[in-house]
Amino acid sequence: MNKRFRRRFIGVFTALFALSLLAVGCSNDSQQKTDKVQIAEVTRSIFYAPQYVAIEKGFFEEEGIEIELTTTWGGDKTMTTLLSDGADIALVGSETSIYVYAQGTNDPVINFAQLTQTDGTFLVAREKQENFSWDQLKGSTFLGQRKGGMPQMAGEFALKKHGINPHEDMNLIQNVDYANIPNAFASGTGDYVQLFEPTASKFEKEGIGHIVASFGKESGKIPYTTFMAKESYLKDNKDLVERFTRALYKGQQWVDSHSAKEIATVIEPYFKDTPTDLIETVTDRYKSQHSFATNPILDTEEWKNLQEIMNEAGELPQQVDHNVLVNTDIAESVAK
Q1: 63 contacts 218 by C-beta, under 8 angstroms
Q2: Contact 40/48 with Cβ under 8 angstroms?
Q3: CA-to-CA distance for 152 and 146, rounded, in angstroms?
Q4: Whole-angstrom Cα distance, residue 212 to residue 207?
Q5: The CATH number of 122-219 is which of 3.30.559.30, 3.30.470.20, 3.40.190.10, 3.40.50.300?
Q6: Could you report the per-residue pLDDT of 166-188, keeping only the tens digit for each?
Q7: Residue 19: which pLDDT band, with cuts at 50, 70 and 90?
Q8: Which of 49, 241, 299, 301 is the most buried (most CB within 10 A)?
Q9: pTM score of the predicted model
Q10: Distance CA 80, CA 156 (A)
Q11: Fold observed for domain 35-118+222-335
């Protein structure tokens, strides 16, 4: 074998060997395990923008996670879905974890990542009011939220703050199912209603009602909506939950550092019946009142405020220490 042929042979052999290694590498990458996580979200709202951003920007995918998102429409339904293993993780108000704990359980539901840090509802009046005053609610018919739910409790907290007893100073309606509240108001029930976005802004645009106040501004910082899972799930899936929380944190940071217009463009697929400019308006409203948590850590002060609001509403079954139902280790590790 002459030198030229030997060099050519070695070159071809080297190239083929490199290609075989590349093929093996690609094969391993294609076979890399992707973990599926089922999320049950309590409602579909622009309030949850960081979650949708984390999905759409591929942050979960980067962490080897495939998200299966289901909207369960109401705190009771969401918690039932989680407890019956219909979901791995629930996005719902932290008060639900306290209710489950108070009933007695060997597998408590643990809050591990906070998404929103204020109430997300707005007070919508049927008639346009140029100079709104909370006193105007006295004697009115108020279409409220579910008894014991965070929206209703935060709403009552705000009303009492302005000297209004919701059970004595107004006709409070609470027997309408969560998903049907907007339709009830649109059909003529109530002078005022407490609504999430984008419904509140849609109603304003269509002339059905007019936003006159924000319950988020009135009730202060609370762990309004958090990601939670059974304690057993957290123990059995430590790495997965950490990757999940890291992806969420990326979404939170992206929302915090980008404009309402940019956010609206990303989350538009989740609100196909809502014009992009309206999504932008709502997003800007939430950003301006700091409703989106910028990190997933649920701190002790927020947990304290939550229980004070529940107690004020007469719905706190028992005081529960922060370290009993809140795991901050994962969120703190990710945020570092």
Answers
A1: no
A2: no
A3: 6
A4: 13
A5: 3.40.190.10
A6: 999 999 999 998 889 999 999 99
A7: very low
A8: 49
A9: 0.85
A10: 25
A11: D-Maltodextrin-Binding Protein; domain 2 (3.40.190)
